[in-house]
Amino acid sequence: MRTIIFDMDGTLVNSGTSITNTVNYVRENLGFEKMEKNYILEKVNDPTINTAKFFYGTESITQQQKELFENHYKETCLEDLELYEGVFELIDDLSSEFVLTVATNANSNFAKKMLSHLEIEKYFKTIVGYDSVKKPKPNPEMINKILDKHNIEKENAQLVGDSHKDIIAAKNAGVDWVLVNWGFSNYKKDAIQNIKELEERIYNKFK
């Protein structure tokens, strides 16, 4: 049995509008000014910064911040939401040969709502969000949870993501990884540039 573990935001779906609007909603409620969309998306997956401190001025996410974010995101997570070009066809093709799963730092209920709205939730056997684990990515717990659930060996798994948090998580879990360049980051090298390249990379690993 083989699995492809997908990140969601910035990999499968373009959810940049709802993420940035929600971050700015929380910031405004805390008395901070809005940040530019591209700046938020650049920093939201940066493993070198404390995101709570960077966005909200606290050492860790407070209950107030969590509630503000989740209440707003629940209402707006479908805003301008779309699949990246070619994703539906890729998922449809892969589903006959692989166990497809999702490891996302989003809330799993929101993830299911978003993927269902885009008509691809049915393809994923497991969707793991931050609320399903003690430590989200870059910790490998999400990946290990998926491997354990489906009894899959590490060499039979591959993670696809758009951020260094994804890659660090994959390395920490000991699984192969693919970095894609159509999400919230912009990599000059070592990244897959389009869906065709990604599909070739996946099949080349498992041929």
UniProtKB/TrEMBL annotation:
Pathway, per record: Organic acid metabolism; glycolate biosynthesis; glycolate from 2-phosphoglycolate: step 1/1
Record-level Gene Ontology MF annotations: phosphoglycolate phosphatase activity
Gene Ontology BP, a term: DNA repair
Keywords tagged on the record: Hydrolase
The keyword Hydrolase belongs to this UniProt entry's keyword annotation: yes
Transmembrane segments annotated in the record for this chain: none
Any Pfam family hit: HAD_2
Record flagged with keyword Hydrolase: yes
Enzyme nomenclature, EC number: 3.1.3.18
Reactions mediated catalytically: 2-phosphoglycolate + H2O = glycolate + phosphate
One term under GO cellular component: cytosol
Domain of life of the source: Bacteria
NCBIfam families linked to this entry: HAD-SF-IA-v1 (TIGR01549), HAD-SF-IA-v3 (TIGR01509)
UniProt cross-references to PANTHER family, sorted A to Z: PHOSPHOGLYCOLATE PHOSPHATASE
Family in the record: Belongs to the HAD-like hydrolase superfamily. CbbY/CbbZ/Gph/YieH family.
Protein name per UniProt: phosphoglycolate phosphatase
Organism, as annotated: Halarcobacter anaerophilus
